[in-house]
Amino acid sequence: MAKACILVIEDDPDIQELIIVSFAREGWTVLAAEDGEKGLALLASSMPDCIILDIMLPGMDGLEVLRRIKADPARRTIPIIMTTARGEDSDIVSGLELGSDDYVVKPFSPRVLAARVRVALRRKADAGEAVAANARTIMGPLSLDAVRHEVLYDSRPVDLSATEFAILELLMRSPGRVFTRTGIIDAVKGPDYPVTDRSVDVQILQLRKKLGKGCALVETVRGVGYRLRDEA
Q1: ∠ Cα 142 146 148 (to 5°)
Q2: Cα separations (Å) of 26 from 68, 103, 118, 128?
Q3: What is the CATH number of the domain that holds 102?
Q4: How far apart are the C-alpha atoms of 190 and 29, rounded to whole Å?
Q5: SS3 at position 192
Q6: DSSP E strands, 4-101
Q7: Residue 147 belongs to domain spanning
Q8: Cα gap 152→156, rounded to integer Å
Q9: To 10 degrees, what angle do helices 110-128 and 162-173 make?
Q10: 120 closest CA partner among 183, 180, 50, 57
Q11: In terms of domains, do 124 and 158 share one?
């Protein structure tokens, strides 16, 4: 099995070295850059399996780097884990709205960050190993292909992040079933995953925006959670 390749964009040399050493113990290949411009240059000539992206970077900040990655059709589905020293909701929400898949707040444990990467890599591998016969789910004008990582609404492509895609797939597999926020986190990220309810709400909000006219298919059940309308 080929080693996973992780791109780390982090300006603090001590933190960067800590991540590199930690990831080397996991058997992963690491590409490292100290600013956004160099990170994007590395990305232009490589195809990493996951990206660790600091929000507070010199020059081009992490959110702008994230925007540019998501604008690249060939690389927009690479899982991206943000790191931030401030831990402010505005940073986290902005990153999630732009399509990042996860975040950690500094100071963080290298073991925690490695665990987040393993989850992202496992989710990516699971999507690639989906059985072809069960790959496509169709609900009215909405269709999802797990193998191609493709969503269409009225034959129009819908560009989703890895986490948004996983949430939609979960809802589409059980139309009409109400999932609590905790249930969504457990199914998409794994049990005991430290993510707030607010993060789930942001992902749902972005999913609805991207579905456009199909936004009403994802219903809020007040005080409980979310479901996909079963008459879709």
Answers
A1: 95
A2: 29, 20, 9, 21
A3: 3.40.50.2300
A4: 24
A5: coil
A6: 5-9, 29-33, 50-54, 80-84
A7: 132-228
A8: 5
A9: 60
A10: 50
A11: no
**Placement of tokens 């993510």 in the chain:** 195
The domain boundary, picked from 76, 102, 128, lies at 128
Residue 62: Cβ-neighbour burial (10 angstroms; 0-12, 13-18, 19+): buried
Q: Are residues 143 and 224 in the same domain?
A: yes
* Alpha-carbon distances, residue 54 vs 12, 36, 140 (angstroms): 9, 9, 40
Residues 120 and 140 in one domain: no
What is the pTM (predicted TM-score) of this model?
0.64
DSSP 53: E
Per-residue model confidence as pLDDT tens digits over 108-165? 899 999 999 998 888 777 665 544 446 678 888 999 988 778 899 998 999 998 889 9
Same domain, residue pair 140 and 110: no
Asked if pLDDT for residue 71 goes beyond 90, the answer is no
Q: How many residues does the chain have?
A: 232
Question: Residue with structure tokens 């190993």?
Answer: 129
Most confident range, picked from 19-33, 159-173, 175-189:
19-33
On whether the CB atoms of residues 63 and 94 are closer than 8 A, the answer is: yes
Angle (nearest 5°) at CA 159 between 143 and 195: 100
Both 118 and 143 in one domain: the answer is no
Cα separations in angstroms, 156 against 32, 97, 151, 210, 213? 37, 21, 8, 11, 11
- Determine the Cα–Cα distance for residues 168 and 172; give it in Å rounded to an integer: 6
